Every structure is written in structure tokens, then in C-alpha cells.
Amino acid sequence: MAPIPPAADPAVAPLTGIIGTGPAMSEVYQITRQVARSNASVLLLGETGTGKELIAHAIHALSQRRERPFVRVNCGALSESLLESELFGHIRGAFTGAIDNRTGRFEAAHKGTIFLDEINSTALHLQVKLLRVLQEREFQRVGDTKSVQVDTRVIAASNRDLLELAEEGTFREDLYYRLNVVPIYLPPLRERIEDIPQLLTHFLNLYNEENDRYVAHIDPQAIEAMQKYHWPGNVRELQNVVERAVVMARGDELTLELLPTVITTGRPARGLGTRAMDFQSLTDELVHKGLHDAQQEANQADEDLLSRIVEPVERRVIAEVMTSTDQVQIKAAARLGINRNTLHKKLKQYGLDGET
Known about the structure:
This protein is an alpha/beta fold and 356 residues long. It is built from 15 helices and nine strands. The strands form three sheets. Strands 2-3-6-1-7 form a five-stranded parallel β-sheet. Strands 4-5 form a two-stranded antiparallel ribbon. Strands 8-9 form a two-stranded parallel ribbon.
């Protein structure tokens, strides 16, 4: 009689709505379930497109606050002044256009959970107010002198190393330690390639249904190519690739030919109307050219040499990203790993804000 296999550990079972059973994600599931039962602040770390918001939802859904509101704020999508009002609310007359009192997101999340995405993009004076909320559970609306008490669990997310930003002086170290009670690292897709077949099946089913198609099979060569690709856009990029393949497929199989050129050859397509772009390859190519130019000028004393090398590279990468995102600054900033305000300044610096 064959031995009965041991029961799977429920602590590492996939969370609802999240795909992947490899060891990297199993660790995420275990920590998520364990921390959800507490009221501790959680810091989600990982590249853009790794599923930080899904984990934030899962923590809330598994917590004792699940019947209360879950409120998301994208800190990188709003200007400094708008973000302060969005988070803490304002009173009538606090600033031009404040014609009524407004409740902020922290009040809206009372007894529930607030998810602060792209926390790394917040200004220093806002970080002071966030620290006060975390330490004293109170804040003041913009323009008001009265304190508002609030019971809100904070989950923050960042695609940048906050400790590194603290060392640079752009993020408060005390706020970092308050947020970093329980850190959860979301691995990039290139570190969990064993999950790609499951993700492919999930997205195929999703987009077959949405588009009334029947792409039921996947060419093994296509899977191999996707497992070798480095996925700078992570799961979100994979999702877009599958949707495109389902729409463009003429038969019932996802074949190698349906994948973007950057996946099958390692080089982006440059044809008219094509916006697929391997930004890492582009950057490497431009940096290599810049270093070659630097070697030719190495004997010249020029304090501006570094900027003359770096700026053309940065300008072209930003221009390419803006084109690939249809000039939508929020999307472009997310892909570049910077906040919207920084992107806006770069666009003005390089004269790209007027391009169409």
C-alpha cells in the first residue's frame, strides 16, 4: 500500500486571487496570513507590477477589519498639495477652491485599512503628518487646528529602497521604522519563473472569456521564451502579452509568433506603430555609446562630461516610455520607477512636455 502523502501546509497555500505556488510566493503567503491577524503596520516592497496591491487587499480580507473599509491612495499620482488634502481632508476656506469641508482618506478608513501606494514619493512635510498618525493615531485637517482621532491600520508600498532614500535625506528614517514593522518582499517575475505556466493559464482563461475566443493551448517554445525573458514590467506585463496574443491568435494555440519581438529575440521591434520596448536594452545601448564617447574625451578636462553622457540617455528613455504609455504621465512614472512630480520636472528639463 502506497504511503499517504502529507497534507499541504495551509499557511503557504495561494491566497484568493493570487497565482503562483513556487517557493518565493509561498513565503509571501505565509507572512501575509501571519501578519493579517495583527494590527501591525506592513511595508510591501517590490518592483512595479509585482502585485503589492493584491497582497494589501489580502491582508485586509484576512484581518478582523475585513468588514470595514479598505481605502487605497496612490501617493505618486497626486501633487503635494492635493495629496495632503486627499489624505487628511480640509475645512472650508483652507485654500482657494475649498468651498466645503472634506473628509480625508484616513477618516474614510476609520476602523479599516488604508493602503498608501508609492509611499516613497511623499514630501517630507507630509511624512511628518504620517508619522503622527502612526504614533498618536491623530491628525489635523488642512486649515484646521482641531485634532481628529482615527483607528486605521496602515499598509504602505514602495518600489524603492526606503532606507536608501532615508540615507539620501528624502525619506524620514523614523517614518521608515514605523512603517517597516513587518516587511513583505514581493519577488519580481524573473525570480519566480516556475509560476509562469500557471499565470499563462489564468490569463488565457480570463481573456478567452472577455473576447469570446478559444486559445486553449500553449506552444512549449512560447513558454520557454517567456521563462527566459526578464519581464521588467513583471506580472502586469505578462498579462498584457497574453491579452494581445488572445486577440491576435488565428487558431486555438498561443504560439511563439504571437509574442512581442523583445521576448522572442531579446530586441524590441522598431517598426512604425510598434510600441513594445525593452527599456533595459535601450538604456544599456545608450550607456555603452556614452562610455565610448567618454573614452574619446577622457583627456579633456570637462566638469560637464558626466551630465553630457547621462542626460541624452535619460532623455531618450523618458521619451520612449512616454510614447509607449500614450503620453499618460502616471503610467510613465510607474514604469520608470519615479513619482509623477519628478517625471514632470524631467519632461520640462528635456523639453518633452510639449511633444505629442
